[in-house]
Amino acid sequence: MVELFMQMTKTEMVHVPYKGAGPSVAGVIGNQIQVTVGSVPAFMPHLKTGRLRALAVTTEQRSPAIPDVPAIAEFVPGYSVSGWNGMWAPAGTPKEIVSRLNQALARMLEQPDIRERLRASGREPAHSTPEEFARVVARDIATWSRVVKNGNIKLD
Predict the structure, then answer these.
(1) Angle 112-120/95-110 helices, nearest 10 degrees?
(2) CA-to-CA distance for 19 and 5, rounded, in angstroms?
(3) Which residue, 116, 119, 127, 38, is CA-closest to 83?
């Protein structure tokens, strides 16, 4: 997320590796680092208490969970990074089984209590077809492959 932001804005930041959102939040609250990036649900409790201040969201549009916080795309046109969760099955799973699983997932996400619990944690419930999901995965693989190449990022 940050590497894409740096490439698109031609800015530089020092990467400080943390083992998850919890330690990175502690780093910001403890003034060891100036900013961190992560999911709204991970930071929501700290936003509510005022220990953290949200500067922007990485999604294409503002988050319904924190509507007063701008999307980076509002000042960096074309920037968009969205997290997603997906349901996976082994390759070769019959289409009728995939369809039944997808329909069950859609019914679950339509339940008001499920939607409210997701929204309360800062997530926006969404559902798609297996084909649409495959396009999202392919798009993200292409985006992050390009970011890694352009940033000359190597594994340690």
Answers:
(1) 70
(2) 21
(3) 38
For residues 79 and 73, what is the distance between their CA atoms, to the nearest angstrom?
A: 5
Residue pointed to by tokens 């031609």? 10
DSSP string, 52-112: S----BSSSS--TTSTTSPBGGGTSTT------------TT--HHHHHHHHHHHHHHHHSH
- Model-level pTM? 0.80
> Please, are residues 20 and 26 in contact by the beta-carbon 8 Å criterion?
no
The whole-angstrom separation of Cα 116 and Cα 96 is: 30
User: What CATH architecture applies to the domain 1-83?
Assistant: 3-Layer(aba) Sandwich (3.40)
Please state the φ and ψ torsions of residue 4, each to the nearest 5 degrees: -65, -45
Tens digits of residue pLDDT in 48-105: 999 999 999 999 999 888 899 999 999 999 999 988 889 999 999 999 999 999 999 9
Q: What are the structural domain ranges in the chain? A: 1-83, 85-156
Q: Which amino acid is at 33?
A: I
- The neighbouring-strand residues paired with 71 are 57
Q: List Cβ neighbours of 130 (8 Å cut-off, separation of 6 or more).
A: 98, 102
